[in-house]
Amino acid sequence: MKTNVNIENYRKLVQTYIDLHVYNAALFWADKVVALTGNPRDVYWLAQCMYLLKQYHRAAYLLRSKNLDKANVLCTYLTAQCFYKANELSEALKLLNSTDPFMVLPKDEMTSPCPSETDIKLFDDTPKSQAYSSFLLLKGKILEAMDNRGLAADCYKQALRTDVYCYEAFESLIKYQMLTAAEEEELLTSLPIDSQCSSEEAEILLTLYESKLKKYHTPVLPKPNESKILYGNSNSLPNNKLLSSLNLTSHSLYTPIIPASISTPVVTRNNDKNIMKSNEAKKKSMPMDISSSNTLLMKLKNSLDLQVAEAERLYYNCDYQACNLLTEAVLKMDPYHDACLPIHISCQVELKQSNKLFTLGHNLVDLYPNLAIPWFAVGCYYYIIGKSDLARRYLSKATALDRLFGPAWLAYGHSFAIENEHDQAMAAYFKASQLMRGCHLPLLYIGLECGLTNNVNLAEKFFQQAQHIAPDDPFIMHEKGVIAFQNSQ
């Protein structure tokens, strides 16, 4: 009896089980689809199932045995991704370099959103610009893991210019301080946003990306769009009282900014029913002719990422109480927000909230013992209670888990500096300066240590280097003034 088998049903079954995270079932049926069809796309999905099951070598071998690792961009990408996850970095980079179909493009800044049709082999429904961007992103990750951060940054920039929506490439550039503030601004202005986005999308994208840029290099108010996002169309922003004095010889986890006068929005608790009602009333009273982009920007005010960006601004403006209120509100909605936690922990250090920091640190360690942030929190707890040896033990563990985690390196240096161990402190700060090329803080702290050891000329050189990165930072100006005073200038 003749029967017809509908292969599409099995393919849908594979996708359904992948969506449900039942990967073994997906692998089982993907294998049967490949046996029935031998189609390269089905082979790709079989390898994808193996990858999801963390069978990296098996997936790479499958794609290579079918000669797909150099014949199709997505298969090349998946094979390289498998080698990357298996920590075979040289093999992954060798594959990408030997089969990169995009080297025919000019090496200068890309202006076209994607390669031409003849330069790329993809499955029909795969967006070419996003595939190319992901290809470059992976190459950047591999180079960064091999400590070639300069070439990695170039790959991230190319990935972002190819697909301006590739946030992971943007985050890779800014998260680990690869760029200075000026370089970040230059990157943002160089992106071909207008050619890849509508005017409304461009406004939203720029607003979101600008909220992620450095906030310490100069004290500024939130930009109009950012203010609208977080606090609506309020015409007046009340003043916050900043800390009137700081002990500059004590080391903070970040260098905050003390502007002479600054206005910041009032931070309110999200669970306040009266304010929720007030916001609803404002929404109803908004004019009907508001532009669509502004409407979307208003809706984005509930984005936790934007609230974290505002908390970071408050922190660098030394408004620790307001910053702490906002980070607590964010963590109440998302207790493990990885971008909020370092700011929240640093704020608790400034406010000397040792009990809260103890509880937070040990809760995080129980949940995420293989991440750096929990050990950073524990190390900070011991730092503020004066147990520097224990602080160094846990901060060292944080840097071992994530060697690029700048706050842990700075805190590690502080744990030596607080005990007047100047050489060890400077060694930690030098390591931080190598990893955080776009951040002035390690250079500032090295200069402070040089000043404390009466090496005034060397201290001045480091302050000048720090000021080159952050020209308007008042702490640098203060320390340069101290040096000038000591030199009777």
UniProtKB/TrEMBL annotation:
It holds the Pfam family ANAPC3. Keywords: Cell cycle, Cell division, Mitosis, Repeat, TPR repeat, Ubl conjugation pathway. One of its GO terms (biological process) is positive regulation of mitotic metaphase/anaphase transition. The keyword Glycoprotein does not apply. The keyword Repeat applies. This is Cell division cycle protein 16 homolog. GO terms for cellular component: anaphase-promoting complex; cytoplasm. SMART domains: TPR (SM00028).
